[in-house]
Design goal:
The protein has 13 helices and twelve strands. Helix 3 runs parallel beside helix 9. The strands form two sheets. A seven-stranded mixed β-sheet has the order 1-7-6-5-4-2-3, with helices on both faces. The chain has two domains: 247 residues, Type I PLP-dependent aspartate aminotransferase-like (Major domain) (Aspartate Aminotransferase, domain 2, 3-Layer(aba) Sandwich); 133 residues, Aspartate Aminotransferase, domain 1 (Alpha-Beta Complex), CATH 3.90.1150.10. The chain binds pyridoxal-5'-phosphate. The site of pyridoxal-5'-phosphate has 17 residues, from helix 4 and helix 5.
């Protein structure tokens, strides 16, 4: 077989060596530490002269298999598994910055990532500038001599604004700074930031990667050199992924590709059906012709992903009413689950932002987000339509 296997084969067949039991699926390695053959073996492992697991805060076979698979899918050398997406976001920044450094980031960031920049890294003298994700000149103008990293999320949550990854890849190369992309919304099945020059890819594996709403997990991926720095940081600060959760998300990668195709198929159908609905003023979905960046979406994404957002009539009260009238679709803070989930960002995930900050990232009072699941499409649309009738 050639070295270059297909994307799906990599996701399914990448595995660590099996034990003498010849198990087909990877067993669960619930062990905090590993045994040394001798004092010399322990010494060699600690000096990184021999390869092997020492302690599960450093590495564990379940997490290693998860990372090997995801790194192949993201076209990165290697990576680090973390206990949650936020542990990945924080470590991927904290490992590289020091007091006085500056980060340029998209204004449309996941809420906790925004808090890491504004309240946590700021305490240690790391500053940041936010940029409108769609304003290419804005990205360029925000870079200073102390800029260490560009951090972007695309598509954004919940505004579904896109960042031009090719442009950012070139900009980062020009200025010799790091480009880090949170690829949680798209997953490597839909877009691969490394193909456009991203140096670091981060994930909340809690979302589409697990895909069934069971565990928290995260990942940081990149070149071996960069990941050595992140590994130093995580090894000593301890945001390690539980091996059980690593085992779950590693198995989940095997079905991610087929699930993402169906999430996107259902989401695109829902977006198309809702456009022009009398109780909805606006539908956001990257692959709709009405999306202001549809050309960019078709260039950098395989499909439009699994999230649809729309503006319900009646403002905030209309949005909340819509949620209360849903019969099947769950009200939950997660996304990327087999079960469709609805949220009202203005009253929940983004309620801490000012009205102005919300406007800047497309979060209007009546905006509803649906993380479209894998149920029969007719049942998804029927639930949305009956709830809209009561708004
Ligand atoms: C959920 C999410 C995170 C945080 O991940 P957790 O696993 O919940 O810690 C980060 N970025 C994006 C885009 C997310 O949706």
């Amino acid at each position: 077989m050639s070295d270059k296997r297909g994307f799906d084969t990599d996701a399914i067949r990448t595995q660590l060596e099996r034990s003498p039991h010849r198990e087909h699926a990877q067993p669960l390695f619930l062990t905090s530490s590993f045994v040394f053959d001798s004092a010399e073996h322990a010494q060699a492992l600690f000096n990184q002269e021999a390869e092997g697991a020492i302690y599960s805060r450093y590495s564990n076979p379940n997490n290693d298999e998860f990372i090997e698979r995801l790194a192949k899918m993201e076209r990165c050398d290697t990576g680090i598994a973390t206990a949650s997406g936020m542990a990945a976001m924080f470590a991927s920044m904290a490992a590289f910055v020091e007091s006085g450094d500056h980060i340029v980031a998209s204004r449309a960031l996941f809420g906790s990532t925004h808090q890491v920049l504004t309240r946590i890294l700021a305490k240690w003298g790391v500053s940041h500038t936010y940029v409108d994700p769609t304003d290419t000149e804005g990205w360029r103008n925000a870079i200073t001599e102390r800029t260490k990293m560009i951090f972007a999320e695309t598509p954004s949550n919940p505004g579904l604004q896109l960042v031009d990854l090719e442009f950012l890849g070139n900009l980062a190369r020009e200025h010799r700074i790091l480009l880090s992309v949170d690829n949680c919304f798209a997953t490597p099945c839909v877009q691969r930031p490394a193909d456009f020059g991203a140096h670091i890819i981060t994930h909340s594996a809690t979302k589409f990667i697990d895909g069934q709403g069971r565990v928290l997990a995260g990942a940081i991926l990149g070149s071996r050199e960069l990941m050595d720095e992140v590994q130093f940081f995580t090894r000593h600060t301890g945001p390690a992924l539980s091996p059980f959760n690593g085992w779950v998300v590693s198995r989940s990668l095997e079905t991610l590709s087929v699930r993402m195709d169906r999430h996107a198929e259902n989401a695109e159908q829902l977006a198309r059906k809702l456009e022009g609905h009398p109780r909805i003023s606006r539908v956001h979905y990257p692959f709709l012709d009405s999306h202001p960046q549809v050309e960019l979406a078709r260039r950098q994404m395989k499909n439009g992903g699994g999230i649809v957002t729309f503006e319900v009539a009646g403002g905030a009260a209309g949005g909340m009413r819509f949620l209360n009238e849903l019969k099947m679709i769950s009200l939950s803070a997660n996304l990327g689950d087999t079960r469709s989930i609805a949220t009202h960002p203005a009253s929940t995930t983004h309620s801490k932002l000012t009205e102005e900050e919300r406007q800047a990232v497309n979060i209007t009072p009546g905006l509803v987000r649906i993380a479209v699941g894998l149920e029969t499409f007719d049942d998804i649309i029927a639930d949305v339509e009956q709830a809209l009738e009561k708004v």
